[in-house]
Amino acid sequence: TVVIHDHRSDCLIVSHVGDSMAVLVKKKAASSSTDQGGVVAVPLTRDHDPALPDERRRLEAAGAVVKQEHGFCRVYQKEGRRPGLNLSRSLGDVVAHGKCGVTAEPEVSTHQLCPDDQILLVCSDGIWSVMRQ
Fold first, then answer.
1. More confident: 95 or 120
2. By the 8 A CB rule, do 99 and 63 touch?
3. pLDDT over threshold 70, residue 133
4. Strand partners, 5
5. pTM for the full predicted model
6. CB of 106 closer than 8 Å to CB of 20
7. Cα separation of 63 and 21, whole Å?
8. Which of 15, 85, 115, 133 has its CB 3.0 to 4.6 Å from that of 106, i.e. a possible disulfide?
9. Which residue pairs, CB below 8 angstroms and at least 24 apart, start in 3-7?
10. What is the DSSP string of 35-73?
11. Which H helix or E strand runs over 94?
12. Tell me, what's the pLDDT at 114?
């Protein structure tokens, strides 16, 4: 995950592959005179999970088999048990890229910043597995 702050247009450009995430922490408006507001987490990326309908379609069109195993979807070659990857996009997996449609092509998006935007978090899947979003 790479996030670039374009200072001229005051926006974030987010480029993302895999299961690390970018989350923007925004100030939440108070809902009453006694409520002081707080913050809310806004995901700027999504995990590239083979279970996502658009990702699954792309993988299967490229010849991959997507199987549900032990609560996770995994990507395999049609003729075998490799690679067993639980991501639909990754960097550096030669077998998955060559035979299963897994790609290193990032999803790219922009986010216009506003005064309520407070903190940008870019963390690996290990952090998000133990934190609530």
1. 120
2. yes
3. no
4. 12
5. 0.84
6. no
7. 28
8. 15
9. 3/44, 3/120, 3/122, 5/113
10. ---EEEEEES-----TTSHHHHHHHHHTT-EEEEETTEE
11. helix 94-99
12. 96
